[in-house]
Amino acid sequence: MTRSLLLVSLAVGPFPAPAPPVATEPVIRAITVRPAAPVVGAQGSVRLVIDVIAKGARGRDGVTVKVEPGRPPGPLLSDKPPVADVAAPAPAPAPAPAPTPAPITRPSRPAQPPVGSVPFLDPQPDPVRAEVPDPAEQTPEPARTAPKEGVNAEGRQAAAPPILVRRQGSAPPARVAPGWETWRFLPDKKLNRFYPTGTWTIAATAKGPNGTTVTEYASFQLKRATKLSSVRAEKSAGPATGVRVRGTLTRVDPRGLTDFGPFAKQPLEILWRPDSESAWVKVGDARTDAAGAFVSTVPGRPGGYWRARYPGSEHYAPHHSKERQITT
Q1: pLDDT at position 30, please?
Q2: Locations of Pro residues compositional bias (predicted)?
Q3: 27-80+157-224 CATH fold
C-alpha cells in the first residue's frame, strides 16, 4: 500500500513593511449656521448652531470656530468651487500563486500515533470593543458668567467682542460620508438686541495631523425686528373710488431705551389681491414720517384684500401687516 505525500517549499525572504499613511491636508467642505437669518426682538435672544463638515482634522480640537461682527477678510467658502473627493489609490495587484510541485510517491509505513499527544490550537484573540464614553459619567464644564451687555452712558452701542464658540458635548464628530465629519458648535453667548447688526463672520479652522491648518469663512446677517401696527384699509371719501391704507411702522430700539420706537423715513409697499386665493400684487408705495406713521391712497380698486409691507434693510428685518378686507 502506498500513499502520496505533498511537499511544499516555502520561499524565505524579507516581507515588505506596510507603507505609512499618507498625510493629507485638512479640508473644509461646508459651513452652515442656523438660523440662517437671525432676527433679534425686544426681548429674549437667539442661539446659533454652527455645523462644519471637514476632512483630515485630528484631535478633540481639530476644528475650531470664531464668530465676530464684520465682513470676512477673505472669500466666502460658498463662493468657491465645491470640494471634490480625491479618488482612493488603486489596490496593488495580488502576487501570482507559487507553482505546485509534483507529489512524490514513497512506500507506506504503518501509522504510529504518538502517545499522549494533544493537538495544538492557536489562541484566538478577544475581539476589540470600542470604548464609548457615557455622557452621565462625564464631568460637565463649569458654567461661564457672561459679562453684562448694553449701551454706554452716551447712548451708543458698546463694541461687541468675538463670541467664543465651543463644540457641543464631548462626543466625536458625526461621519456623513467616507472621510468627512460634521463638527457641531454652540456659541457660549446668545445674540440679543445689544449686539451690532449687519454682517457677521464665521471663521472655521481645521488642523491636520502634521500641524497644517486651513481656514474658511461664512457669513450671516443679524437684524433687529420691525412691526407694522394699527394698519387700516378703508374706502376713500369723495367722488373718486379708491382705498386709503394707513398705519405705523416701529422697530426695536437699538439704544435699549424702549422696546419698539418709531421708524422714520422708511419706504413701504401697499399690496392688494382680489380674493384670498390670488397672489399679492404691489399697487402702491408709502413712506413713514418722523413718528413712523404712513398713509397711502390707491385709486381704482374699491374692494379686495389689503396689507402693507416693509421690505427690510441691511440692519432691520422685513415685516408685513395683517390683511384687511374691504367689501364692495
Answers
A1: 96
A2: 90-104
A3: Immunoglobulin-like (2.60.40)
